[in-house]
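One example given next:
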Amino acid sequence: MFGGEYATTDQFYHYKDLWCLDLKTNVWREIKAAGEYGL
């Protein structure tokens, strides 16, 4: 799941984070993307 965004009437910001939910443990972990299309 890609991270969220922050938006107001005059600002817009993408957090550019990437997360994975382990469905067995219900624990989120952040994924550090790399390479040409990394975040």
Q: What stands out?
A: The two ends are 12 Å apart (CA to CA). DSSP finds no helices and four strands in the chain.
